[in-house]
Amino acid sequence: NVSFLQFLLLTADIISTVEFNQSGELLATGDKGGRVVIFQQEQESKNKLQCRGEYNVYSTFQSHEPEFDYLKSLEIEEKINKIRWLPQKNAAHFLLSTNDKTIKLWKISERDKRPEGYNLKEEDGRYRDPNTVTTLRVPVFRPMDLMVEASPRRVFANAHTYHINSISVNSDCETYLSADDLRVNLWHLEITDRSFNIVDIKPANMEDLTEVITAAEFHPNQCNTFVYSSSKGTIRLCDMRAAALCDSHAKLFEEPEDPNNRSFFSEIISSISDVKFSHSGRYMMTRDYLSVKIWDLNMESRPVETYQVHEYLRSKLCSLYENDCIFDKFECCWNGNDSVVMTGSYNNFFRMFDRGYQQDMTLEASRENSKLRSVLKPRKVSTGGKRKKDEISVDSLDFNKKILHTAWHPLDNIIAVATTNNLYIFQDKLN
Amino acid sequence: MISTMECAVDAQSLISISLMKIHNSRTQRGGIKLHKNLLVSYVLRNARQVYIKEKYAEIYRMQQYEEVMTVCNEIQELNPLDLEAEDAEDEEQARAACCAEEASACGSPCHRGAAHCRAAGTVAGCSLLEDGCKEPEPSYYRSCCMEAPPAPLCETTVLDLDTHVVTTVENGYLHQDCCCDALQCGQSAQSPAKKRKVEFGCCASDAEEAHDFTAARKRAKREDCSYSAPDYTDTSNISNLISIFGSGFSGLLSRQADLEQICSKQALASLGAWTRAIVAF
Q1: Global pTM exceeds 0.80
Q2: Judged by CB atoms within 8 Å, which residues 169-208 of A form the interface with B?
Q3: Most CB within 10 Å of its CB: which of A232, A299, B74, B82?
Q4: Dihedral angle over CA of B23, B27, B29, B31, nearest 10
Q5: CB–CB of B42 and A267 under 8 A?
Q6: Which tens digits make up the pLDDT trace of B74-127?
Q7: Distance from CA of A77 to the nearest CA of B (A)
Q8: For the segment A174-204, what is each residue's pLDDT rounded down to a tens digit?
Q9: Chain A contact set for B279 (CB, 8 A)
Q10: Which domain of life is it from (chain B) (predicted)?
């Protein structure tokens, strides 16, 4: 049983994505205003057991601006839909950030030294008259205050007619995919003026449209394999070696619908909002409105594990449809060794499911209820008639407080949880 | 917080809520969200299916009641008093005219609703859907052109909206309560119905036409054009009912799929306009 310490909170514009880099040292967030804020683990304290969850702001930059498509008379939102880090190859860090239409590759680099002693330039930058130079000296690097710079290195634009929902970097570190409602494109990180379309589910007649792509991800180890999920609750695994256009899947993962649970909203709640491979590559996890499912890639007929996130909402679907909450897209994530999965819920609750011990836990990210560095208390929603003390009844849940984005440090038990405006970082309390 | 008020789980409310969502999405920042609108269209489809099924169930219930009353009325007709017989006939005529007209009430709600929204482009248009549907709703499928499960005494009466001729075909029967309810709904059709010429004749040719699905649809189209009341915009449903009646109640069940297909085509056609608009880019 793990208890968590709440470490950091930061107020921001509505957070729209959260992602650790491969080492866990950096944590990137994107927001509705097109900004990216990167946090870095406190260098001095990351080796101190109780202070691993201390992250400070490392860099902030404006990634996307609002745009206007004059041809279609459409405003393009600057909201950052996804951020994905590239594996680190040198001192600089690279990440991909995307809004609805355009993906950008950003280089984040540190500068802590400055060249001084130019011959032809003054210290303030003005050029000297060459005729006044009488001696020569070799410029040297002198330390300066650390400056973190973010610069856009590539802009991948004009490849998506519909709204981009996913990007995923390939394990080959050279290519990545981007997915919108109807298409998946393959890019090379160096080439911005073209991309390959590898999946296209747009019907000849749009009136025949029955499903859209909701998420896509590359396999963590096999550079030829990727999956994409659909609004119908299916996942297709595709092999790029089979054909140039991967419209026909190699595997189709689908669980038959339970006829007893049929309702007006069956289609909505079966729509998959997120798909994530396990770190091992053996499993994948999908999130639909009410549950989290773990699939074994070797078995297409049904998931191997299903976890109910908030089953008590099943009787409230009509209200949730009216207030649009039923369309909320929750994400999910694995911990470093794939033993625990986590996802968000309402009332600023988030849920963890321990696959090994078959236990689940509900925690709350809240300023009021938790003091900094206090231990989180598990929460419980009362579903039956009698509400016990400390339990919360379904009717008093706040559906405006939703946790859609969570991330787990790849190597440690540190988690980042985004409520609407705040980012919380929790680390496990080791005794 | 979820409202503690009961939310509208009935099909009709869901239909109007869904249409409103589709309408509102057009003005959302960032463009129309294809995924969300697709999901809303599924709710729309599900609600429509339930709505249609509910209506069929209502018809079936009415029909059972009618059978009982048929027997009662026949017993009544054996009465030697002329006056009563005449009254019965008059009632029948009034019933025939009224109810058949009521039957040509609003068509597929979503079709109308979508049409309204498309035309008006305002929230008012969508609420019109609700109001418009509510009014004719009680009499919508209370069409007396109902065929009973194989019972030789039942008759179907069909009102030809072109010639205003009421003809009695093989099956089905008009019931007094049915008409009264229709009248109580305060339909404007009330007065014109009474003024209509009513002619009882068992036109065999008409009966055959009624059974002929295609012909019935064609006639429905003519009826559509000729009838001026604004509420009765979609009369193809009445023709479908006519064809169903001709083939027995089991025909109703088997035709349900066809009817649904037709309705769904209508609904999808109207939705299609939405998806066309949605993916205009």
Answers
A1: no
A2: 181-182, 206-207
A3: A232
A4: 70
A5: yes
A6: 887 776 555 444 454 554 454 444 443 443 333 333 333 333 333 333 333 333
A7: 5
A8: 999 999 999 999 999 999 999 999 999 999 9
A9: 206
A10: Eukaryota
